[in-house]
Amino acid sequence: MTTPLLLTDLLDRSRELFPDKEIAQYGDGGPRRRYRYRDYYDRVARLAGALRELGVRPGDRVATLAWNHDRHLELYLAVPLAGAVLHTVNLRLEPGEIAYILDHADDRVVVADTALLPALEQARAARPGMFVVGTDGSAPGVLDYEDLIETGSPLSGPPDVGENDLAALCYTSGTTGPPKGVGYSHRSLYLHTFAACLADGHAISERDTVLHVVPMFHANAWGIPFAALMTGANQVLPGPRPAPADIARIIESERVTYTGMVPTVAVDLARYALARGTDLSSLRALVLGGSPPSDDLVRTFTEDLGVPVFQGWGMTEISPMGTFARPLPSADHDPAARRRFVRTQGRLLPGLRWRLVDDEGRDQPHDGKTPGELLVRGPWVAGSYFRDEHPESFTDGWLRTGDVATIDPDGYLEIVDRAKDLIKSGGEWISSVALEQALLHDPAVAEAAVIAVPHERWQERPLAFVVLHPPAEDTEDTEPADLLAGLRERVPRWWLPEQVLVVDALPRTSVGKLDKRALRDRARAGRFA
Amino acid sequence: MTTPLLLTDLLDRSRELFPDKEIAQYGDGGPRRRYRYRDYYDRVARLAGALRELGVRPGDRVATLAWNHDRHLELYLAVPLAGAVLHTVNLRLEPGEIAYILDHADDRVVVADTALLPALEQARAARPGMFVVGTDGSAPGVLDYEDLIETGSPLSGPPDVGENDLAALCYTSGTTGPPKGVGYSHRSLYLHTFAACLADGHAISERDTVLHVVPMFHANAWGIPFAALMTGANQVLPGPRPAPADIARIIESERVTYTGMVPTVAVDLARYALARGTDLSSLRALVLGGSPPSDDLVRTFTEDLGVPVFQGWGMTEISPMGTFARPLPSADHDPAARRRFVRTQGRLLPGLRWRLVDDEGRDQPHDGKTPGELLVRGPWVAGSYFRDEHPESFTDGWLRTGDVATIDPDGYLEIVDRAKDLIKSGGEWISSVALEQALLHDPAVAEAAVIAVPHERWQERPLAFVVLHPPAEDTEDTEPADLLAGLRERVPRWWLPEQVLVVDALPRTSVGKLDKRALRDRARAGRFA
């Protein structure tokens, strides 16, 4: 009963029980490669052997800088099988940030898509002893991935590690300070995989064909690759820079049953599918995460496209799954009630614990009204950062999420705001998230972002940025005054923003989240448009 | 990420997320009590406090001798919450065996149904310091359960134990030698609970209402009480000695969605429901375990009663779930193929590993043909027995199941025989299970059992016992010669039993399994009828 929980067990399981299930690799508009778990196993075993032959030892870090493709999926298991730590690097970072991260993690090898090699130049200059492998061919000083697989002697498990040793590592792109590394142990990823396959969670099963839209450099692609290996689900990888059209066509042609993405990608997918009549109805679950979806988006998918939508909430520090929003059975025959549940962040996954605390650390009631900072702990929640002290992020073993939230009596979480995005006006809190939702209620508004700006009398006041839908013919342009008038009916008078600014687009971070820091910079510099 | 996995977390979870879900207690033909998880929590906390006040310390054993009822369910969590070990004792054992087990486990307290107190007399005489609690009232020298709850100071978790400390203990009723104790750690039960809630496993979810037919003294009632707490499923307890009529009526009135039982109980349930027109269609899953169901039984449930049937296989030593038989999607529209899948023991649950080995310990192919002894290991598989050395049961950390089985290329397990039930005739193996299935193919046969009897020339030969259905009017009695003639068409000639004996009933063990040891005794004594 003390058998260790090792991630590589999932690899053995997939070969033994599901040797004929498929991995399909897309790219350049169509399928490029299709192979089976039995072949996947062989390639992973050879790659793990090749890494060992390069000198990779248990505990060493091996970085990836790659899009979502078959070779990245091979690295997901080959690196842990070699006993090493899979360090997925966000390819949207600046070269200087990448260099910082590779240096901080002390990566011994980096495997990169050949097209991304320029982003590595700075890092390579600083780490001359680091091996560089190109996923699609060699170059000067760059090893060829396929050569490694061809020459590697197959390694078989289990690796010479314990369950609490690291299997993976991912850096968060914090909004302040340098990136912080979150290490995932074999045990934590194993338990997280169980959570992903629960009937009341994402419910990944052998009947699924999963499509990896979430970047594989982003918190283990939500852990879905591991869940697919555990259950024998088919996996589909979209390749570099998938456009909404690619995602829609892949779902239709592969009869994808499960996928996850951020709402902004889902908005584009829905628009494309509706315009072209793409059939997305094979999806049994579209899970949205990263930020809450609008009511309109949920309705479009469920009612117009026949796709059940769920919301998941998590963080890099939580491996990443923390909650899952499955509507209560009482909402089964009430579409509006279902949408309300889906727009919450949902309920805590089993295995985890949570608390809501005020500024003094006192527990707040779970009444759906009283906000507090959300603390989380559990077997797949980070208790520290990799090679860094960040005591401000932890309290008595609890992770401070930085999210301000309410929890209702049924246990549904609603993130009210990031702690630092709350607007404190005249001693009262204004929720920027609630204001954004109120703005989105206007059918003319496509996107909305609200930030705090300093104010002499009130300390802080809200400032709103909105992106409008293209106006239909014969209609007048929507003006900020119209939006303010609409808001007046929906929010308390003292919540009304100082200004509503119409902009062409909102700034986003490297993982596609709204970049409020950039908006604050703009506001500070007076660049409002 | 090193947060311990403690079973008592499930109790906190149920109170926090599912306070209004129900526990319904039946008995005397109808519902006797109905209460909510919030009340369950309060009673469990008080009971745990009362146990501590009786002197129970972390690691101490607390025995139960009880039917499936609400108070037994309270003990399931209260004992671990007190840091102690829940020791469920099989109430069908002889008083001498019970005394042996209580002495071996060194139980500090025993909580027993008042009607079962006589079976404890021998044990009490031998253990004068042991506290005895009656679940339904006091008696001389017996404490009253409700008094304990009334006077106990609520204890809150977590208990002062580590994840590898024992939370539960169950003795196997071996067919040879004294009973052996299997201890379950907090960690092992926690992981087993995850496995019970997987979409590809029993898939226990918040939408379920589970009925506990499997005795709660039998390997944690298959772990379903813990799964219900994790997911917030409603729980229904049938009370003492539930008859098929009780089970049928409870399923109908509570709209039970999930239950598990042994095939012999299911046969009676089906017969009752068909005769009375009971509606069992609320069941989304009827899981059969303990022995494989006949094709006829599976068909009756799926086609006549509209109840999907699955098979699970396990052992007390595996907490108990080892496999789950969910048909491959390819069988979706082929009822006969579905039944074939369900009649296998199914596929290994994630987290576990298995091997098939021959007498010399060499791995055998998973080709669906080659038999071998099944070995299992994993985080909820025993690696030793409680306070006993049984090295013959383990090989290099693997549990020797004693089952001879095949595994097909898709990973479906079929138990061919108990190692000791195989018949070795002229150097070749004859499967007693296959012979029993061949006998059951005759519509006249209700039950069949085949054992080995010594034979001068062939070393061993098969001997068959059958129970016949009552003959329909106007038909002649089935004779052994008819059965042998039928067998000739289904099995190799050298498999034909020496004799087919028609008997009124087959002997069963205390957990309802066919008692082949008793049949061998009968054969040895020449008592064939």
TrEMBL record, chains A, B:
It comes from the Bacteria. Pfam families: AMP-binding, AMP-binding_C. InterPro entries: AMP-bd_C, AMP-bd_C_sf, AMP-binding_CS, AMP-dep_synth/lig_dom, ANL_N_sf, ATP-dep_AMP-bd_enzyme. The keyword Ligase applies. One of its GO terms (molecular function) is ligase activity. Residues 435-513 form the AMP-binding enzyme C-terminal domain. Keywords: Ligase. The keyword Ligase applies. NCBIfam families: PRK06187.1 (NF004837). PANTHER family: LONG-CHAIN-FATTY-ACID--COA LIGASE, MEDIUM-CHAIN-FATTY-ACID--COA LIGASE. This is Long-chain fatty acid--CoA ligase.
